[in-house]
Amino acid sequence: ARLAILLSGRGSNMLALAEAVRTGVLRGLAEVAVVFSNDPGAYGLEAAAALGLSTASLASRGRKREEFDREVVGILQSYRPDYVVLAGYMRVLSPTFVRAFAGRIVNIHPADTHQHQGLHAYEWAFDNHLPATKITVHLVDEGLDTGPILAQRVVNLEGAATLAEVQRRGLAVEHVLYAETLASLITTPILPAPPIPTHNS
Ligand code: GRF
């Protein structure tokens, strides 16, 4: 399967996925078709290029969401991705984008998406002294972190004294869970439900 990986920042999940493609659970199952960023200066884009991956970017700053997304969809389609993999992509996707890749957009969120949506999930866990967080990989629909959950894994946060420690523990789990979940999605794709038979069929 061809993956388009989208990021806005550091790109540690992108690197973990690229490594899983090279030597891990995604080997022989997936290839990185492109790493795309809405920030041409994103560190993760540089890191992808340094690995020899194809990269593309389009600055989102000051752009209207729909219009920007239409252009991004065009760029991504030219790489013929089977899955669009969000890895720290800091944009809410417009309906135009979601419909263009319906059922094939995947995201990772550092908390249970039933309990926390949007930004700053690790800060939320740390500030509220949560004993654990639940990393969530889910399909993306038109809401913010509302799509069907594909996999979750609990991270023990007991004794984590700093936000950095919370993030360190969480990211280590993210990096493993994301690759494993994509591997099972690729091997056992989620098929659309068959139409309900009527009297006439
Ligand atoms: C991760 O915590 C991910 O769950 C969230 O954004 C962060 C991206 O980190 N959606 P990185 O750029 O992959 O290092």
UniProtKB/TrEMBL annotation:
Transmembrane segments: none
InterPro entries named in the record: Formyl_transf_N, Formyl_transf_N_sf, GART
Reactions that this protein is recorded to catalyse: N(1)-(5-phospho-beta-D-ribosyl)glycinamide + (6R)-10-formyltetrahydrofolate = N(2)-formyl-N(1)-(5-phospho-beta-D-ribosyl)glycinamide + (6S)-5,6,7,8-tetrahydrofolate + H(+)
EC annotation from Swiss-Prot or TrEMBL: 2.1.2.2
Nucleotidyltransferase found in the keyword field: no
Domain Formyl transferase N-terminal residues, every copy: 2-181
Active-site residues per Swiss-Prot or TrEMBL entry: H109 (proton donor)
Protein's pathway: Purine metabolism; IMP biosynthesis via de novo pathway; N(2)-formyl-N(1)-(5-phospho-D-ribosyl)glycinamide from N(1)-(5-phospho-D-ribosyl)glycinamide (10-formyl THF route): step 1/1
Binding residues for N(1)-(5-phospho-beta-D-ribosyl)glycinamide: G11, S12, N13
Keywords: Purine biosynthesis, Transferase
Example GO molecular function: phosphoribosylglycinamide formyltransferase activity
Reported function: Catalyzes the transfer of a formyl group from 10-formyltetrahydrofolate to 5-phospho-ribosyl-glycinamide (GAR), producing 5-phospho-ribosyl-N-formylglycinamide (FGAR) and tetrahydrofolate.
Family assignment from sequence similarity: Belongs to the GART family.
Protein name listed in UniProt: Phosphoribosylglycinamide formyltransferase
Protein encoded by which gene: purN
